[in-house]
Amino acid sequence: MSGYDPGKGEIVRDRLRDRVGRVMDREGACFQLRPLGGGVEWDAAPEDIEPVAVSAALSGHVAELNRHSAWPV
Fold it and tell me: What residues does each domain of the chain span?
């Protein structure tokens, strides 16, 4: 999304990886995103991120929790 510049703490979707994360910082040309449930940050290019609606953010959070769940899905 051209011209989109999220601030720290904002929730965004990384279209390339199809993941939702919280903006932790910006280093050089990339944003550092962290899963909503916590975990390891990843880098995302500005052109790969977009704002998300609250419902999508919650859905992303549930997906992250399920990914780390010990229960079979």
Answer: 11-67
